[in-house]
């Protein structure tokens, strides 16, 4: 159908209101500013200046300017600016940031109501004016954009329509800050390079307080977000200087804000122990499928055109037949060439389609870089870039979501190309949220692997941060500013700086006097102390990062068998519970049930449900070490044969009455008398709880006597024990991660029964004095006091060793008896294969208290919390006090000293010093260590001396050479003067010149007369 048939149809129109609607996509104001910075980077600019000019007559009081030295635009290219959605940068293989043809319009209209653009390219100057104020004043609905241009040399307008030029300039003079052509040319003169662009935004948007959204008064070297910021807001959300520093993953363009250079960062060079992980996945298909559909559509259109051209060629050949006239041959040749070109185009697009279909099936590969931010540990999380442009920052994932200290301070960096994920129009998020969540989940898995590879948790998280000066209990508190801690941090992260001339990045060697040194904005390679990198023509050193591998824990055959047996057991328990359940359809069915079932069905079923839920949902504790596994879980062996009733941990012994004392003093009945059945069933004993039972069988007679004595008490204590059991069950159900273990129950029962047996034995004398009664009363209160003291351990922060690794956690339950105290610790973070809590013995080698911060290093907020008693830190009862702490501090100091002065190429690796024990440090070869250090220091001094001697020799040779040249120049000058005197004497014989001064004066006099 011919195009002329569409001329009468309606067309979409862009209204003036769209300018405001389009700008609302930028919720983050710095994102709008970044759009203009992106345009300069895509224009291959090496420098951009962002500055303000005060204009009190304008709304906001100032103009915001963006000046770059990019390739600029000619008048034809400038017209693309006013075409919404059109971009010459859009292509699947493009590495440029702009893709949508919308950034300049949406970004500038978000900052202010009007902007004017000045650009220079070749021999042309072009001005573009987009003003909402103009449209509002004139009452226009269409978007009108004046676009005059001038010749660079003559400054004459380039136009075939003088009337159009006059209207355009008149509108600019009326509604812009520049009122005549001279002022416009002054703006063009600010573009000092051969090409470039200047964007000026004015009539800025205001807040409710009638103040501009951007604050340029508080810090004259920065542009800040106005208003009061909430506590904990990241610096990149407050300061545009901080945001611009991390805006690009590999910054090349120099950025100046208010005349001061931004110290841009390559994040991977600012981290401690960076490590890269190769990631491959076939999950990211959305963008690739879109490209395949687009290529398929283009291939079909090209194939149709080629087929139509071929058909036209065949028809023309048949029609011409044997007509060999010149005009016929020309027409035929033209049709044949057209058919051939269209067929080539169709073949090329078909190959593109095949290549994209093949790429769709191939996995997408990304590089995850992780490292620890030791400069400011609370600034952690994932930084996700798209084509080198920052999209998301400080994204928490994996172990960081749990809020513990695990993976705290770790920063992750990834650069995602367009073919993997496509950003939204405002470049603050990704279009496909599902695939982005998958990316974050994958980064979380690799983050956990990095944390394991660094061995920080194994050495102790608190100790690790102490080494770098983080002495406060507050996670967000800055590190110590002491010189030793500053040097420690500077030693681990070498300074990387960009040359202002060649734009290459240079890594400076560590120097003691360079700590806290302020480098100039115009730093160049010549200032580099490294002789190999002190020239701009030296190649840039690539960052050599160690490569890590994700290690997935594969379950062994034994683990699979255990898991299967556990599932079978759970299903059997559910089946038994269902078989015991009777279906009730009416009130008559309730009456048929037994009395105890019909009266209390809810309680029993709820208890069964709770127990089944605990068994199915709560993870098992990790296996205990061998020395804990073999430890006795009950006080004496005879307690294993006692009545298996569940009692609370270490209850106070019952009060002994005289009648019961006399009953206990009587001879016991024969041992052959069977014992009555216990009221509560004992769960199947665990492997660790069978040892006491075997020991108890060695003394059956003694155990039988104890049993018969206690049975006489059971009838009187039955109700009291039932109440205690109910209270204990309620307490256990209220704790989320607490689980019952058979060994725990048995040790509780054995301890309680043993205590009651001992009380009965003490009650055998028929009469007592007051002193005996007081002594007995105090002995009865001792277990109760021990239990109360043990319960104070709840809430302690501890570290527990599991599979040779230390994990941080919190004591959530305490179990105490006369022999030992056990803690139940809930971990902050452990791998998936390890349960999240476990029981440990207090005082064992498997547990240690986390060292509390010293009062001096605490912040005022922390000290106030301590005074209020919100979270008191208990003293370390698991280890010796002062001597152990002094030893640990001395060991830490020795490690720091050894690493600080560590000589290169020493036979012991530097990293092994951190893992050395105190005994290994005592045996450290200090003599050899200092000999090698002294020899290294001597060789370093010798190299400096030899370098100084070489430079002095070079200077001396250069001085000698200059003296020779100076002497030769003097000889030539003297010869020249002699020739001039001879020449003058030939011209004028009576001339008399004897000295050089007379000759100089004579020549000067001749020149003066000539003028």
Kindly summarize this structure in a few lines:
This protein has 1011 residues and is an alpha+beta fold.
In spatial order, strands of the major sheet run 5-4-3-6-2-1-9-10
Beta-strand residue percentage: 5-15%
Largest sheet: 8 strands, mixed
User: Could you tell me the mean pLDDT?
Assistant: 76
Count of helical segments?
Answer: 29
What structural class is derived from the secondary structure elements?
alpha+beta
Quickly list its features:
6-stranded mixed sheet; 23 strands; alpha+beta; 8-stranded mixed sheet; single chain; 1011 residues
Characterize the structure shown:
The chain has 1011 residues and is α+β, with helices and mostly antiparallel strands. It contains 29 helices and 23 strands. The strands form five sheets. An eight-stranded mixed β-sheet has the order 5-4-3-6-2-1-9-10. Strands 14-13-15-12-11-18 form a six-stranded mixed β-sheet, covered by helices on one side. A five-stranded antiparallel β-sheet has the order 22-21-20-19-23. Strand 13 and strand 14 form a beta hairpin. Mean pLDDT is 76; it is low at 595-719, 725-775 and 853-881.
């Amino acid at each position: 159908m011919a195009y002329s048939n569409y001329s009468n149809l309606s067309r979409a129109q862009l209204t003036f209101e769209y300018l405001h609607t389009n700008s609302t996509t930028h919720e983050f104001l710095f994102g709008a500013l970044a759009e203009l910075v992106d345009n300069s980077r895509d224009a291959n600019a090496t420098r951009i200046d962002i500055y303000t000019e005060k204009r009190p007559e304008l709304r906001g009081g100032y103009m915001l300017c963006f000046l770059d030295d990019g390739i600029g635009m000619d008048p034809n290219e400038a017209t693309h600016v006013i075409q919404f959605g059109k971009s010459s940068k859009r292509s699947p293989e493009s590495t440029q940031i702009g893709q949508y043809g919308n950034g300049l319009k949406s970004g500038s209209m978000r900052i202010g109501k009007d902007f004017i653009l000045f650009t220079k390219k070749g021999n042309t100057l072009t001005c573009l004016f987009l003003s909402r104020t103009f449209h509002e004043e004139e009452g226009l609905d269409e978007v009108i954009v004046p676009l005059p241009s001038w010749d660079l040399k003559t400054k004459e307008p380039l136009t075939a329509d003088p009337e159009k030029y006059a209207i355009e300039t008149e509108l600019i003079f009326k509604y812009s800050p520049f009122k005549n052509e001279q002022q416009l040319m002054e703006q063009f003169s600010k573009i000092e390079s051969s090409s470039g662009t200047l964007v000026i935004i004015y009539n800025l948007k205001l807040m409710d307080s009638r103040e501009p959204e951007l604050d340029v008064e508080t810090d004259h070297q920065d542009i800040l977000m106005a208003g009061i910021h909430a506590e904990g807001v990241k610096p990149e959300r407050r300061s545009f200087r901080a945001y611009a520093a991390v805006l690009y993953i590999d910054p090349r363009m120099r950025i100046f804000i208010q005349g001061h250079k931004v110290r841009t960062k390559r994040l991977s060079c600012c981290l401690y122990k960076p490590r890269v992980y190769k990631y491959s996945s076939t999950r990211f298909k959305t963008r690739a499928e879109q490209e395949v559909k687009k290529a398929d559509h283009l291939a079909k259109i090209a194939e149709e055109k080629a087929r139509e051209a071929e058909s036209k060629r065949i028809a023309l050949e048949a029609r011409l037949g044997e007509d060999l006239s010149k005009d016929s041959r020309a027409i035929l040749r033209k049709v044949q060439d057209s058919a051939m070109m269209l067929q080539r185009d169709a073949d090329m697009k078909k190959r593109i389609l095949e290549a994209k279909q093949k790429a769709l099936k191939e996995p997408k590969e990304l590089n995850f870089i992780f490292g620890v931010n030791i400069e400011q540990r609370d600034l952690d999380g994932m930084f996700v870039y798209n084509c080198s442009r920052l999209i998301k920052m400080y994204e928490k994932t994996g172990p960081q979501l749990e809020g513990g200290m695990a993976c705290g301070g770790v920063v992750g960096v990834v650069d995602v190309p367009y073919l993997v994920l496509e950003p939204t129009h405002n470049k603050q998020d990704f279009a496909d949220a599902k695939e982005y969540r998958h990316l974050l989940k994958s980064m979380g898995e690799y983050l956990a692997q990095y944390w394991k590879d660094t061995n920080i948790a194994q050495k102790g998280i608190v100790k690790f941060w102490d080494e770098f000066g983080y002495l406060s209990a507050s996670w967000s508190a800055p590190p110590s500013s002491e010189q030793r801690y500053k040097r420690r941090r500077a030693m681990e992260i070498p300074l990387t700086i960009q040359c202002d001339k060649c734009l290459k990045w240079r890594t400076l060697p560590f120097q003691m006097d360079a700590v806290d040194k302020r480098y100039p904005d115009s730093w160049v390679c010549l200032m580099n102390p490294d002789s190999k990198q002190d020239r701009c023509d030296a190649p840039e050193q690539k960052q050599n990062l160690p490569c890590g591998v994700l290690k997935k824990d594969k379950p062994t055959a034994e683990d699979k068998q255990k898991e299967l047996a556990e599932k079978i057991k759970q299903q059997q328990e559910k089946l038994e519970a269902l078989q015991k359940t009777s279906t009730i359809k009416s009130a008559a069915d309730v009456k048929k049930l037994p009395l105890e079932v019909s009266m209390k069905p809810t309680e029993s079923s709820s208890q069964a449900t709770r127990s089944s839920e605990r068994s199915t949902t709560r993870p098992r504790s990790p296996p205990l070490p061998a020395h804990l596994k073999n430890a006795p879980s009950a006080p004496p062996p005879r307690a294993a044969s006692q009545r298996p009733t569940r009692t609370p941990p270490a209850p106070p012994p019952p009060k002994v009455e005289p009648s019961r004392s006399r009953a206990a003093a009587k001879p016991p009945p024969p041992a052959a008398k069977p014992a009555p059945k216990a009221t509560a069933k004992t769960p199947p004993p665990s492997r660790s709880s069978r040892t006491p039972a075997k020991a108890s069988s060695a003394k059956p007679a003694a155990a039988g006597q104890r049993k018969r004595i206690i049975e006489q008490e059971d009838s009187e204590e039955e109700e009291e024990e039932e109440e205690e059991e109910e209270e204990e069950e309620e307490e256990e159900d209220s704790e989320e991660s607490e689980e019952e273990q058979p060994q725990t129950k048995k040790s509780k029962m054995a301890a309680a029964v043993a205590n009651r047996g001992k009380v009965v034995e003490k009650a055998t004398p028929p009469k007592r004095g007051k002193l005996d009664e007081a002594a007995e009363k105090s002995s009865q209160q001792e277990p109760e006091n021990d239990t109360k003291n043990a319960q104070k351990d709840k809430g302690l922060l501890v570290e527990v060793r599991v599979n040779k690794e230390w994990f941080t956690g919190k004591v959530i339950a305490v179990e105490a008896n006369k022999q030992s105290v056990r803690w139940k610790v809930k971990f902050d973070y452990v791998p998936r294969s390890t349960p999240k809590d476990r029981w440990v013995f207090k005082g064992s080698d498997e547990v240690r208290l986390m060292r509390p911060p010293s009062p001096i290093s605490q912040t005022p907020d922390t000290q106030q919390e301590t005074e209020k008693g919100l979270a008191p830190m208990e003293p370390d009862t698991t280890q010796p006090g002062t001597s152990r702490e002094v030893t640990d501090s001395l060991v830490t100091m020795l490690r720091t000293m050894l690493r600080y002065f560590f000589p290169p190429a020493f036979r012991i690796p530097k990293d092994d010093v951190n893992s050395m024990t105190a005994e290994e440090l005592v045996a450290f070869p200090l003599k050899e260590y200092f000999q090698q250090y002294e020899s290294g220091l001597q060789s370093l001094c010798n190299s400096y001396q030899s370098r100084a001697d070489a430079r002095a020799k070079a200077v001396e040779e250069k001085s000698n050479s200059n003296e020779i040249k100076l002497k030769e120049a003097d000889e030539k000058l003297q010869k020249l003067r002699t020739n001039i005197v001879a020449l003058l004497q030939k011209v004028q014989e009576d001339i008399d010149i004897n000295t050089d001064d007379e000759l100089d004066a004579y020549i000067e006099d001749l020149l003066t007369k000539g003028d």
